[in-house]
Amino acid sequence: MQLENKVCLITGAARGIGFGIAQRFAAAGGRIAVADLEAKEAAAAAATLGDATRALGIAMNVAEEAAVDDGVAKVVAHFGAIDILVSNAGIQIVHPVEEFPFAEWKRMLAIHLDGAFLTTRACLPHMYRQGRGAILYMGSVHSKEASPLKAAYVTAKHGLLGLARVVAKEGAAHGVRANVICPGFVKTALVEKQIPEQAKTLGISEQDVVKKIMLANTVDGEFTTVEDVAEVALTFATFPSNALTGQSLVVSHGWCMN
Ligand code: NAD
Predict the structure, then answer these.
(1) Which CATH class is domain 7-184+225-251?
(2) What residues does ligand 1 touch, defined as CB less than 6 Å away?
(3) What residue segments make up the domains of the chain, in order of their start?
C-alpha cells in the first residue's frame, strides 16, 4: 500500500477536509494522528479509522507553541516517528479591511500561519533524523486569488506558499519535501457557514451565493469535494522524488488556472 505504516499527523482532522484526508491516508495503509481542538472529537474521529495501533486522537491548538510541541511529542511517543505532516487546521473570518478587528486578524494569522510554522518546526527534527518526510500545507484558491472581505484569509493562504518554498529548500538535503494544496470551494462546515452569511450581507438568495459567487467561475458549476482534495494530498505525500517539492496545486474545477 502507498502509505504502508507511514505515520501521518493531520491537523484540524476531526471533520471536513482534514478528516477526509485522514480517511484516505488510513485506507492507503497510513497510521494516523488526528489532531484537533477538542480531545473528545479528535478521539472519536480517530476511532472510526482503526484501533490504537492505527489511529490516535490528540488535542492540539495549532496556534499554541506548547500544545503543538506536546502534541507532536505524544505522536512520536505513540507511533515512534512522523513521516507526513498535513497542516490543515483553519477557520474563516470575513470583514471589509477598514472594519477588520485587529484581534480577529491576529487570530486568523495565528491559526493558519503560526499553526503551519509551529507544526513544521516540531516535526522537522523527527523527519530529518530518519532522512525522509513530506509536509503538506492546506492553501486555497485564495493562495493565488483574492476575494473581497477575506483580507486575513487571503494573506495567510498566500503566506503558506512562502513557507512551503523555504521548507522545500531547507528540507531537500534531508529527504523532506513541502507542497501546498489549493482547493476551490468544498462544502464543509467552513463553507456551509458562509452561505447564509453572504446571502444576508449581499441581499441575495443562498442559491445565488452558491451559483453566482462561489461557483460562478468554475468550468462546470461544481463544488470541489473532500475526496478530490484527499486524492491530491495522497499524490503529494507519496511522490517518490524531490521533483515535486516547493509546489502548489490548485484543485478547483477550473475556478483558478494559475
Ligand atoms: P472545517 O471547519 O470543516 O474543519 C476545520 C477543522 O479545523 C475543525 O475540525 C476545527 O475544529 C479545526 N481547527 C480550527 N481551529 C483549530 C486550531 N486552532 N487548532 C486545531 N484545529 C483547529 O473546515 P474545512 O473546510 O475542512 O477546512 C480545512 C482547511 O481547508 C482550512 O485550512 C481551510 O482554510 C482550507 N480550505 C477550505 C476550503 C473549503 O471550501 N472548505 C477551500 C480551500 C481551503
Answers:
(1) alpha beta
(2) 11-12, 14-18, 36-37, 60-63, 88-91, 111, 138, 140, 183, 185-186, 188-191
(3) 7-184+225-251, 187-223
